[in-house]
Amino acid sequence: MAETLWGKGQPLDAAIHAFTVGDDPVVDLSLVPHDALGSAAHARMLAHVGLLAPEAATSLVSALHALHDEARAGRFTIRPEQEDGHTALEAALVERTGEAGKRIHLARSRNDQVLLALRLFMREELLALGARTAELAGTFLDFAEAHADLPLPGYTHLRRAMPSTFGLWGMAFAEGLLEELEALKGVWGRLDRCPLGAAAGFGVPLPIDREYVARLLGFSRVQRSPIDAQDSRGRHEAALLTWACSVAGTLEKWLWDVQLYSMDEFGFLALPDAFTTGSSIMPQKKNPDVVELARGRCRELRGLAHQVEAVAGGLPSSYHRDFQLLKRPTLQALTSAKALLEVLSRLVPALKVNAEKARAACDDTLYAAHHAYALVAKGQPFRDAYREVGRQLNDGSFQPDRGALTATHLGGAGNLGLATAREELADARDWLTRTHAQQAQAASRVWAP
């Protein structure tokens, strides 16, 4: 068996090795590009403070850049006996750079190495999720604008309640996603601190420059306490997944509505044939599997977030090997969230609205509250007007004036606030674009010859 990074020459039981390695050789493939970038920044820092010869740092950065590109292209492999991506990456460095590769681990531990790789990975994933969320919010705004005045029954308790519109319905989900885009910046702030230099959780007795490497990698600050750096394992993953779950919670409600409104019994919406699947036994079926699976993904995300919280919870401070089990559910959740957002960005604009059926479902009873307000406008106290309308509904004399009142306040059916919402979306997109560009510039600085 190949020598591990921590090996001291004693044999290791094969079953123990397999159990402790787990699925890291597969999971870590997603982290290798970020590990390579972090390692290159570390090499530059070591040269900057005089702990590594400049020519050795140059050789390491060049080799790490090539390995980064190979990992991005799917050509990097981690052999089971190598234990994890860190071992595989260091072995490749030694093979390509000789003695220089043996110096890369100076002044760091696998603990802060994986912390940094995960932090870089999660920042990249958060920006990608933000871009997809912004795209989806835009499709909801387009839907709301295209169907702004089309009548739609408004429901409470799954019973008809008040008049609504498709515009009001679509705007609700655009608004929810815009709020999530605001919250994203808070999650980014939590991830925007560099843990490198924490080592095993107690720093290193060497004159390293943590601020230098943080600036090099595009972090706004250093995560000061080395113990807290280790304690943040699970905390930051949970914050990211909690945000993703909140996005999914908004979408789950929309998916439920689509499932209901596209039933034959409602008929307000229809999915194009390309978004449905058939039955193996019933020729007439056009099943909304994409809606149901997307709804299931929302619940799956909550399950994975709970798994992260369960693994990280109940531990004392500092590093524990339990943290290894955080990687798989985190990566799985982020992959699932991106797929969910991508497919819904295609589904929203493809929905077909049946305005005739929705209009027919808006019967007179929906206007009961409106009629009470019309009576109030004529001088009646609201409670008296409420009782009067109730009496009319009971004795069959209710005949409302459907056009008497319109909700013109901000957010009402007559004033959706589309222009303001589009400005907010533009601001969110601008922040995402600028932040992404800043991270790309930081990577370019690390890789510069």
Q: Concise description?
A:
The protein is built from 16 helices and 6 strands.
List keywords for this structure.
449 residues, mainly alpha, Fumarase C, Chain B, domain 1, Fumarase C, Chain A, domain 2, 3 domains, two-stranded antiparallel sheet, two-stranded parallel ribbon, Argininosuccinate lyase, Fumarate_lyase_CS, amino-acid biosynthesis, L-Aspartase-like
How would you describe the overall organization of this protein?
- This is Argininosuccinate lyase.
- This protein is mostly helical and 449 residues long.
- It folds into 3 domains: 93 residues, Fumarase C, Chain B, domain 1 (Orthogonal Bundle), CATH 1.10.275; 251 residues, Fumarase C, Chain A, domain 2 (Up-down Bundle), CATH 1.20.200.10; 32 residues, no CATH class.
- It is 60% helix and 5% strand.
- A hairpin with a 2-residue loop joins strand 1 and strand 2.
- The chain is elongated.
Topology diagram in text:
Elements: H1 14-21, H2 24-27, H3 32-48, H4 54-72, H5 85-97, H6 110-146, E1 151-156, E2 159-165, H7 166-191, E3 193-194, H8 210-216, E4 221-222, H9 226-231, H10 235-261, E5 269-270, H11 289-312, H12 327-347, E6 352-353, H13 355-360, H14 368-377, H15 382-395, H16 418-447
Parallel strand pairs: 3-4
Antiparallel strand pairs: 1-2, 5-6
